[in-house]
Design goal:
five-stranded mixed β-sheet, 328 residues, binds coenzyme A, globular, alpha/beta
């Protein structure tokens, strides 16, 4: 049986850094509150003229360079995002054009919020393993600064902008690359983290703008509890399926939403925190971009070595969740 491997990874974060101290000048919060409740110290904010697709293109170029491939090698392009450039067309088509990915490539967006990158990876895996596609470019890219209500201190302190990408390809060697994946969703929790207006159930109107209904609204406590529960379950299932004990996992790359969520997950799984890659202190929650951004940094800093087993795990609005097991 052939394998699908991650042949290259890349990421991009905008230059502009927004610190907690700066935020505290505009909303009633403090560096101390944000750090102790979330672990976040600063986040990146994209430029006014920098769209989601622009960040995606930067990350994609880096991933292609890492894989020693060019845009013309790609025949499948998936963008996971909840902040597309526009409702129509898909950001994937815009990225295709900007990046120079050939015509006739299959390009589409997926909507799975912060679990989007893992959903994209599973879709690409399935499409590559059929032999109908050869090389996939999957991207998680978000300009969350455009959907955050900067007057709402309960949400605006948590999010940031970034993009991450990976090139996937099939190889003949069995047992390497993406060796496991488990996705799920629980729509019962859909209203715990949502944007009320701007879709077909509540189209944009002067009233919806006036009522600030185009911004993220969240029940933080409920999301927190669900996040720990679903990530623990999916990690346990992944380890059971592959008959792994926690000590066989070299590194866990969790969705970067809140350090306390990661600490609770580590405690429940009885894994030490030094097995968890954390960079949310510098970027905050960048939704679908957190995992490829963290994976890129983990590889660059030497925390992923050949033969290692890495567990990727995420949760997001929906409530969506997923885990993937990668052998390098
Ligand atoms: N600065 C200062 N005080 C704040 C604040 C801020 N930025 N945001 C909220 N507060 C206040 C609240 O108003 C509340 O005050 P009160 O006790 O007077 O009512 C107090 O701090 C505690 O708020 P609470 O909501 O209980 O804090 P918390 O410990 O649950 O932390 C979150 C809040 C949002 C950080 C946390 O619940 C969380 O991270 N949830 C998950 C969110 C998430 O991951 N979302 C993305 C999913 S992909």
């Amino acid at each position: 049986m052939a394998s699908v491997i991650i042949a290259g990874v890349g990421s991009y974060a905008p230059e502009r850094i927004l610190t907690n101290e700066e935020l505290a000048k505009t909303v009633d919060t403090s560096d101390e509150w944000i750090r102790t409740r979330s672990g976040i110290g600063e986040r990146r904010i994209a430029g006014e003229n920098e769209a989601c697709s622009d960040m995606a293109v930067h990350a994609a170029r880096a991933a292609l360079a890492d894989a020693k491939m060019s845009a013309s090698d790609i025949d499948l392009l998936i963008v996971a995002t909840c902040t597309p450039d526009r409702p129509l067309p898909s950001t994937a088509c815009i990225v295709q054009h900007k990046l120079g990915v050939p015509a006739h490539t299959t390009c589409f967006d997926i909507s799975a919020a912060c679990s989007g990158f893992l959903y994209a990876m599973e879709i690409a895996y399935g499409m590559l393993i059929t032999n109908r596609y050869k090389r996939a470019l999957i991207i998680g890219a978000e300009k969350l600064s455009t959907i955050v209500d900067w007057s709402d201190r309960t949400t605006c302190v948590l999010f940031g902008d970034a993009a991450g990408a990976a090139v996937l390809t099939k190889v003949a060697q069995p047992g390497i690359g993406i060796i496991g994946s488990d996705l799920g969703a629980d729509g019962e929790f859909a209203d715990k983290l949502m944007i009320h207006a701007g879709g077909s159930s509540c189209p944009a109107s002067a009233q919806s703008v006036e009522a600030r209904q185009h911004f993220i609204r969240m029940n933080g406590k409920e999301v927190f509890k669900s996040a720990v529960r679903v990530m623990e379950t999916v990690c346990r299932e992944m380890m059971e399926q592959h008959q792994l004990t926690p000590d066989q996992i070299s590194l866990v790359i969790p969705h970067q939403a809140n350090i306390r969520i990661i600490e609770a997950l580590a405690g429940n799984l009885k894994l030490p925190m030094d097995k968890f890659f954390v960079n949310l202190d510098r970027y905050g929650n960048t939704s679908s971009a957190t995992i490829p951004l963290a994976l890129d940094e983990a590889r660059r800093s030497g925390r992923v070595k050949p033969g290692d087993l890495t567990l990727l795990v995420a949760f997001g609005a929906g409530l969506t969740y997923g885990a993937a097991l990668v052998r390098w």
